[in-house]
Amino acid sequence: MFRRLATALGASQAARELRWMRAAAAVAGATDLDAMVARRVRGEPLQYILGTQPFGPLNLLARPPVLIPRPETEHWVTKLADSLAPSVHNPVSLLDLGTGSGCIPLLLCHLWPPGTVRAHAVDISPHALRLAQDNAALCGISSRLCDPKTPHNTFSVSTANLLAHDFAETASRIHSSYDIITSNPPYIPWKEYLELSRSVINFEDPKALFGGPSGLEFYHAIARFVSSKNILKPDALVALEVGHDQASTVESIMLATGKFQRTEIWLDPWGKRRTVIARTRADIL
């Protein structure tokens, strides 16, 4: 068993993963460890085999073909949570575009105090929306205010296509306007998509990865969306994850909307320019 895994992954990585799979098999009881190893040898991502992926202090469910949360996303979402301080007296409305597992809004709901955020998430994939709802239930985050006397954050999902011409109308029906818009959209251009590992190409949803020939298709759609009347509140912030060489271009796309007075680019833990932050006011934190 170890030899098969080591041939595919190398000895040190195989030892770590086999330990994790043994632990998962012990918890699941009936799970066949041999079957888990066979799936991994075929290239299936470990997160799908284990069924979970840590994301900050959360341990989220992971199911194919929904995009597996990445550490670089965890990094900027945690930084965003630390940089803002929503209050229970003035809760923020947040929209997450292409939510996948729901990792971005759910981590923010977890990190911000109860009653400070009303999070909404959209995705075109029914698999993603089901997983996001399951993760919200796992995290104990309700879709509505059950008891107005007990402050708590909420998370709801809707089916929507960001590239559709009427997406702004769909979003405005969910909520009239937003304080925060977040997204880790598909941003991999065709040439780079073809060079991805087989564990990504063969198992994760290409619609969550491929951002058009240039990789910028969804950023242009987001720019059109935020340019819509009244979508952004006066003190709004937009946070967008980007590809390794896209930050300056995406920053320019956001500035070209005329909606933002200040932008900045955040680095990921490996020094990549990973997140574009755009603010409608120059003086907000």
TrEMBL record:
Keywords: Methyltransferase, S-adenosyl-L-methionine, Transferase. It comes from the Eukaryota. GO terms for cellular component: mitochondrion. One of its GO terms (molecular function) is protein methyltransferase activity. Pfam families: PrmA, PrmC_N. GO terms for biological process: methylation. Gene3D superfamilies: DNA helicase RuvA subunit, C-terminal domain, Vaccinia Virus protein VP39. Residues 26-51 form the Release factor glutamine methyltransferase N-terminal domain. This is Release factor glutamine methyltransferase N-terminal domain-containing protein. It comes from Hypholoma sublateritium (strain FD-334 SS-4).
